[in-house]
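Troubleshooting: if your tokenizer reports a length mismatch, compare your output against this known-good record of 110 residues.
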Amino acid sequence: MYCQNRDTWDIRSGHEVEISEIVDTILRYQNYFKSGGGVTISGGEPLLQAEGLINLFRELKKYNIHTAIDTSGMFKINDTLEELISLTDLFLLDIKHIVPSKSKELVRLF
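Known-good structure output:
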């Protein structure tokens, strides 16, 4: 797992925030969403907090807010991710590999 945002690499730092507080903050800015805009969750790696995202996205769907996740996609699909996928309108998949031939192999069309 890797993110270009070095300040997000330490997964033990930060603080907990209630879902209601996050939703309240988002709703204050809802008037600025243009052309169906919404909320994009990016990294560090958002899928490390999949259960929290499920709770957040459930609440955002009550307000018809578009949801997106920017992820490395390195997690196996399980029941939790299946549920998150069902609540997510857009995935931005950022596959990274240092070796160009390996990167091409990972993203080639079958």
